[in-house]
Amino acid sequence: MAQDSLLQSQLNEKRATELREQISKHDYLYYNKAEPIVSDREYDLLLEELNTIEKQHPELITPDSPTHRVGGTPLKVFPTVHHKIQMLSLSNTYTRQEIQDFIRRVEEGLEGEKYSVVTELKYDGVAISLRYHEGIFTIGATRGDGVTGDDITHNIRTIRSIPLKINPVSVNGKQIMNFEVRGEVFILKDDFLSINTEREERGEKLYANPRNLAAGTLKQLDSREVAKRPLSIVCYYLYSEDIKLTSHSENLLILKQMGFPVSPVVEECLSIDEIFEYINKWELQRESLPFFIDGIVLKVNSMRQQDILGTIARSPKWAIAYKYESAKAQTLLNGISFQVGRTGVVTPVAELNPVFLAGSTVSRATLHNNDYIANLDVRVGDTVIVEKGGDVIPKVSGYVPELRTEHSIPFVFPTTCPCPHQSELHRPPGEANYYCNHAECPWQIRRKISHFASRDAMDIEGLGEKVVEQLVDIRLLTTVADIYDLHHHRDQLLQLDRWGVRSVDNLLSAIEQSKQKPFSRVLFSIGIRFVGEGGAKILAKAFMNVDAISEATIEDLTAVPEIGGRIAASIIDFFHDESEMTIVSRLREAGLQFELNESERAGISKALEGKTFVITGELETMSRKSAGDAIEQRGGKVSGSVSKKTSYVVVGANPGSKFDKAQELGVTILNESEFMAILEG
User: Fold this and answer.
1) Burial zone of 51 (CB within 10 Å; 0-12 exposed, 13-18 middle, 19+ buried)
2) Alpha helices (runs of H) in 202-271, residue ranges in sequence order
3) pLDDT in tens, 140-172
4) Contact predicate 130/181, CB 8 Å
5) What are the chain's domains?
């Protein structure tokens, strides 16, 4: 019997090792090479099998297990990491003359030695440090002030293109096993566009640029949330005490052999002409790249020569960054069209004479809303200025006054929706947007259902935009509640183009599984205007079930942290709308969760109930949003202004006028460590 148990244990260990190796191989092929050799389903089955073995036999879990990538228990604070070698910041330049000055300083510093310069794309992301011991990833840290940074190891593990265990590489007969790698975490253009499009549909504030989004994601205390974000990385630095490294270009090759993603377009230049060729080439082609770059990085190739040149302050004298200007072009504004979102918001879009702008042809650009158009005073027939800065979508940023004709007419926003129903548009007081309120507006129906089924909402796999459009067109879907009646129409689905038994059954199965999504996800999914994912969580915790929310008054709602008057009014309008309540009733009958379960209720803390906090300045251990979330999770309230009713003002670095106001009113002031003690107490 004991022998059988030992044999089974050995088989489990062997299988776990095989699975880790297979999954790591597939991660590398998918995320670094873009050459997957198995389907998503096959990959998920491998990961599920490994997860099952590790749960049943915790002694088999290893530090490099890919099961760690899904995130773990939320942290209360990021520990501090001291960088073994200071993380330097590059000096920036915007002119060719400054590049020439840099080359002159390099030549003077090397006293006539021959040298080469490596040119790389400057990814627009966030610098991080990765440490490996015996070939296993151990610590991931932010740059911080260059000397110390935050330990974000749990978050870094979720980035699947980073190897948790390296491919062994030997240099001069010796393996590199203990080393540090540095790189840039970034978000691809399509992923950033998709995230912002979803936020716009939900009526949430858009992220300013992918760099800020990447930075904010890495500072999340809950790595499970980080795992949901599509973070990528490019690595550009290697240091090891195991061996003597000789050149930057060789280091990049070593990194690639180890399994790290590196830039595919690095060049070694022997003259300033070659450097300018590289700069010119990517200035023209940068918009064709799937990621954002904001310039070019130049580095002296030889490590020995880098040591000779040294550093000044926090910047190396052997490297410099050349920054590109934002791309702009002029073209004719032929007209202004409109698109309708899921909440009914009508957004104007500039229809342009096609113009080539930084690597791509632009024929449409956003105009945001009526106030934006009025402030710019752009008119149909104007020659307008189109920009591509930190955003994916081009925008109109102005017009050329001297090219405006005397016959131009100021733009007047339409009074009816462009949808087939031509319903009257409504602009709520104090808002910049116009809305179509017709319940049968087909554009809204498609967007509402797509939002309901999206990954952050009910996560119904197989119900993407094209499928939604197809099912709305044949009126199988007219509201989100119709989704849960699709099982009655299985035969009809099988008759549709591009549908087979497997795809239909997979969709119906995903719909059934979605019924287990928690109350907060359901509340977010039903599409109450101005109630985003975070707001839905707050409402769910505060009221615990949908009936309590539907019966709440303005006073009840605005007493909840983060629920202002506009959101409260929208919630009341939603629950007084008969058609919306009919949909809610149908969803309840279908079996969706419209109240917190027992474990969720038990997890609600009241430690800070009745306390109001104001946060000012820059916190070191967490973002201000994370601090606010931590307060609200404990029953406290976060306010944007200081008054006599404020319980505490939390003060970080470079505080604003709220700090002065707190001193004036005698409000208790907490530094960051005192604030953390309250959270932990």
Assistant:
1) middle
2) 210-218, 223-226, 248-258
3) 999 887 888 889 999 999 998 999 999 999 988
4) yes
5) 2-62 (1.10.287.610), 92-323 (3.30.470.30), 327-412 (2.40.50.140), 442-516 (1.10.150.20), 519-602 (1.10.150.20), 612-680 (3.40.50.10190)
Q: Is the pTM of this model over 0.90?
A: no
Rounded CA-CA distance 372/348 in Å is 10
Maximal CA-CA distance, the chain: 97
The torsion defined by the Cα of 195, 201, 202 and 204, in degrees rounded to 10, comes to 70
> DSSP 3-state helix, strand, coil percentages of the chain (rounded to 5)?
40, 20, 35
Whether 165 is catalytic? no
CA triplet 512, 518, 522: central angle to 5 degrees? 75
CB of 619 closer than 8 Å to CB of 219 = no
**CA 269, CA 652: separation in Å to the nearest integer?**
45
Which of 14, 33, 84, 122 is an active site residue? 122
Q: For strands 319-323 and 92-93, give the pairing.
A: parallel
Query: What spatial distance separates the first Cα and last Cα of the chain, rounded to whole Å?
Result: 50
514 close to 531: Cβ distance less than 8 angstroms: no
Quote the distance between the C-alpha of residue 54 and its chain's center: 30
How far is the C-alpha of 649 from the C-alpha of 667, rounded, in Å? 7
| Tokens 């890495």, located at residue | 218
Q: Determine contact, residues 624/615, Cβ cutoff 8 Å.
A: yes
**Tens-place pLDDT, residues 193-221:** 788 777 766 656 667 678 888 988 898 88
- Alpha-carbon distances of 611 from 88, 633, 634, rounded to whole Å: 42, 12, 10
